[in-house]
Amino acid sequence: MKNNINWARVFGGGLLAGLIINIGEFILNEPILxxxxxxxxxxxxxxxxxSGAIMIFVMMAFGIGILAVWLYAAIRxxxxxxxxxxxxxxxxxxxxxxxxxxxxxxxxxxxxxxLLVIATLWSLVEVTLATVAGAWxxxxxxxxxx
Length: 146
Fold this sequence. Notes:
Elements: H1 7-32, H2 34-43, H3 51-79, H4 83-108, H5 113-136
């Protein structure tokens, strides 16, 4: 069994996963929660994130996508290739990147509970699907993805 990670496929699959995360985040943060989020920010005397912050968020989403596919590649030899392993990787990334921080935000009362619950559940689906899509492009060798 070959245990080398195919970095080209990690980056390719990760960019696809990151694109899906970015699309999902745009949909969540503009048409779905945009007005409510702006209202909350105004209540805290804060401006909504500007273009600089948004660019950081976009780059972070691509980084998270790459990280998710890397995790899939890393656990693939033990768990086997396929969607089940990709879901495990995606759930791990989601738990560390969204669930834990959002529970912290809930505990500290930074944002309304409704906003955080919606964002947390949305991201559960978004990150899991993105990881499955990115993992679909991953292979151990330069053979076509299966």
